[in-house]
């Protein structure tokens, strides 16, 4: 059993953006959805009221610093920022760009590309969802532009690594039509820029996808479990089993996550 590296996914949609103003209404953030929640049964505590930092705005550097402090106190090693790239168009990137440019907070990080289209869902089986922005894969020029846009982050000393290789997550690896070529292109670009290449972490959403993911090359093992439940972390023992290219994370005899390393 290996000791887990606890990394928290970081959703940056807690500040207003021009796109969300258009798609969801002026001033929309994830707090909008939190506030709309309604109790569904007796004792159901909704809407949730955030503790510690209240209804924070991620545009404030002091908030980001406080988040890093809370994570450090909870034993979290770093943040994995959700990253959005649509054929050269970046969404929800203001916060991460400021973190890279300012050097603050001084807290480890990595990135995970949320490579999926965005929809306005109707939640009605008889009505189609509205496409807001489509995730596409134009080819090598886009892959190179994508890498170069993130190069300042990759060269940042805070960027997290496994055996000297940069950690980069892919939300939907099976959606990339030429995933192997994408991986090879980025590794070549990394080496060209004085970096040691990547450990590509891909999220296995279903055990049924395991056989489809076997074409991925396994470079190393990293445990990737996500939680911001600060009071629980000190009481939880993590462990890992590695089999057939998958790292499966266990906690108190329950499987929490199954991931694949490319």
Q: Assign a percent range to the helix content.
A: 25-40%
Number of strands: 12
How many whole angstroms does the radius of gyration measure? 19 Å
Helix-strand string: EHHHEEHEEEHEEHEHEEE
Mean pLDDT: 82
Structural account:
The protein has 262 residues and is α/β, with parallel strands linked by helices. Helices cover 26% and strands 24% of the residues. Strands 1, 2, 3, 4, 7, 8, 9, 10, 11 and 12 form a 10-stranded mixed beta sheet that branches. It has a two-stranded antiparallel ribbon with strand order 5-6. A hairpin with a 2-residue loop joins strand 11 and strand 12. Helix 5 packs across helix 6. The longest helix is centred in the middle third of the chain and has 15 residues.
Brief summary:
The protein is of the alpha/beta class.
List its traits:
single chain, 10-stranded mixed beta sheet, 12 strands, globular
SSE blueprint and pairings:
Elements: E1 7-10, H1 18-24, H2 30-36, H3 61-73, E2 78-86, E3 89-91, H4 94-102, E4 109-113, E5 118-120, E6 130-133, H5 140-154, E7 161-162, E8 165-170, H6 179-192, E9 198-203, H7 230-233, E10 238-243, E11 246-251, E12 254-261
Parallel strand pairs: 1-2, 2-4, 4-8, 8-9
Antiparallel strand pairs: 2-3, 5-6, 7-8, 9-12, 10-11, 11-12
């Amino acid at each position: 059993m290996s000791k887990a590296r606890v990394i928290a996914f970081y959703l940056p949609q807690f500040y207003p953006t021009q796109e969300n103003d258009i798609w969801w209404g002026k001033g929309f953030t994830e707090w909008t959805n939190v506030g709309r929640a309604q109790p569904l049964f007796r004792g159901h505590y909704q809407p949730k009221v955030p503790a510690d930092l209240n209804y924070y705005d991620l545009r404030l550097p002091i908030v980001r610093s406080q988040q890093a402090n809370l994570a450090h106190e909870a034993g979290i090693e770093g943040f994995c920022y959700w990253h959005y790239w649509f054929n050269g168009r970046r969404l929800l990137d203001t916060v991460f760009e400021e973190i890279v440019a300012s050097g603050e907070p001084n807290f480890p990080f990595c990135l995970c590309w949320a490579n999926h289209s965005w929809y306005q869902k109707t939640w009605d089986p008889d009505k189609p969802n509205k496409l807001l922005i489509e995730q596409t894969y134009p080819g090598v020029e886009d892959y190179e532009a994508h890498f170069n846009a993130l190069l300042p982050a990759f060269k940042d000393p805070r960027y997290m690594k496994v055996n000297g290789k940069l950690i980069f997550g892919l939300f939907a690896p099976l959606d990339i039509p030429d995933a192997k070529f994408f991986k090879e292109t980025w590794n070549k670009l990394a080496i060209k820029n004085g970096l040691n290449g990547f450990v590509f972490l891909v999220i296995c959403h279903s055990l049924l996808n395991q056989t489809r993911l076997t074409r991925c090359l396994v470079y190393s093992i990293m445990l990737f479990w996500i939680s911001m439940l600060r009071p629980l972390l000190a009481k939880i023992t993590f462990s890992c089993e590695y089999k057939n290219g998958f790292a499966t994370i266990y906690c108190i005899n329950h499987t929490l996550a199954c991931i694949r390393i490319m």
